[in-house]
Amino acid sequence: MAEQIDLLLTGGTVVTMDHAGTILSDGAVAVHDGAIVAVGPSAALAERYHPNEVIDCHGCAIIPGLINGHAHVPMSLLRGMVADQQLDVWLFGYMFPVESQFVDAEFVYVGTLLSCAEMLRGGTTTFVDMYYFEEEVARAAEEAGMRAICGQTVMRLPTPDATSFDEGLDRSRRFIEQWHGHPRIIPTVAPHAPYTCTDRIYREAAALCAEYGVPLVTHLSETAREVEESISEREVTPIRYAKRVGAFDGACIAAHCVHATDDDMRLLREAGVGAVPCPTSNLKLASGVAPYKRMIDSGVKVGLGTDGPASNDDQDMFTEIQLAALLPKGISGDPTAVPARDAFALATCWGAKAVHLDHLVGSIEVGKRADLVVVQLARLHSAPRYTYSPDAIYSHLVYSARAADVRDVLVDGRVLVRNQDLVSLDERDILHRSQQIAARIDTFLARRERNLLAKILAIGGVQQDEIFEIQVKARLDAEAAAVVARLINAPGVQITKASERTQYDTYFLFANGERIRIREDHRSDPGARPQPKYTITLIAPGERGELPSAIVLSRARYTAAADHTVRFYREYFQPDQIAEREKRRRRWRILYKEHDFAINFDNFGRDSAPELYLEIKSRTWSRRDAEHRAEIIGELLAIAGISEDALLKQEYIDL
Length: 655
Ligand SMILES: CSC[C@H]1O[C@@H](n2cnc3c(O)ncnc32)[C@H](O)[C@@H]1O
Ligand SMILES: [Zn+2]
Known about the structure:
Keywords: Hydrolase, Metal-binding, Zinc. Helix content is 34%, strand content 30%.
């Protein structure tokens, strides 16, 4: 008598991705209680089973559900927000500031629903995520019916859901406890990357993963710069560093590994770490092309991911598979480098190993969960079909199939997409809610992009010094030393501090008159700090008035420590013009008539042809006080013997 089962998919080309590479041309898959109970010829299974439901798969391939090994699914709401930037500008200039303003539980929930809808329609059934408010990712993935490893992100910087790492770790523990044991959702913790984490963060995250037997998720060796900085700061590559701080003690999923060295690959293989490059994102952020072939050949468990939709910009695993097949060919000149079958394995059986879920998914085999995808084969862009070679189906799936060819999707035997319609999610409602959130971000960015101060504030650490700066400048001649000596030795002048420094200034000039100065300040006087000091200052034109004697009163300067490179700031602010100045400066801080002033003796020239200037400056919060100080500066000029016609009105950058 025929056995009663839940479901039979029949009449399709079954691409099992099992160890033997079995392909059944008129094949069927029997599903019961969420698991695959038989795989075989359609006729045989039709005889053996009495299914409650039959899905006719003629003209289609039945493939294992695709595995997206690295994603930030809520970031679908940031898709298309900024493009064509390097990783640091993209991340520190746009993602982090916008996330800190807008990412909350609702953002994460709606963004995840949007991604789940997109992924399901494109044949992805499992994804590995790392983001904030990860309990909302888990909730949305659960509602969508998908399988997911959900990593609660931790780092040393404050995040949208935690003000410190300790708070983030507590949150991760609560999240893991809440979801641990769920049949499809694996909760875990995800230290963001070596450059945003400390040894302690990795060690404590690894200990938490060990306690619950869940994989640790992280980013490693995504860009060449990351590797260079890791070597110069820690003397090891990010991958060796991750091993040193315990990230590989249990199961680990390492996103990207684009710049993994041969030694790194050995470490990854020995520790059984899953390496998950993200071809589109790695190209779009110009991070590079992962060494797919060398990683595969050296026995590393390799998977594939989309990365977040803000750097991809879609979550179509068919594109990633195609790129993983094409890129190594283009780079090596060897068309056999990563054959279609291997590329397809990266998103199925090998991908499952890379995310440590190969006991459940990744191939169509008896005993595995019924995560299955039905792909139409006879579309305009993929017709006709050849069958003389067993490999032709891989070529078809890798080079011509697209996400839009996916017809039906099952996870755990439950149909989630039927005839290209989402069963578990309300597509129209998700699109509406997504656009509402994006509209708020759009307004915020439109304002911010027009406002340099807001842009500086967005990257953090700014002191809002809205002050009056009173300053006067004079060009000095051969008598310069005598002029300065007269000034600093004058009766009533008390020197409080003296220093010598070389300053390298880069000015960004904007059409509206605003300026940004990035200063590298090296002190050379005895006892000075050995490290240069980097500052970024916004000099807004603000209210600018001139007092007697060419004394300039400017308002609104905002200064912060400059944590990024000049290149970062250039790409982030996109100035209309750039100018550079180098000067040697002797500076005396003096007290005169109970007010403090800075006397700067500046040399822009070479020793053989010095270009000498004297600057007298002071700062205050009050306009009235500024005017009073301007009068005192007039007295100091008289003491120095500087006549009115030696005074300059311009800033150095304008001279
Ligand atoms: C770990 S998710 C949280 C955090 O990571 C940022 N992010 C997204 N994609 C990348 C990437 O490719 N490299 C580094 N960081 C990335 C995202 O904006 C979130 O803030
Ligand atoms: Zn990522």
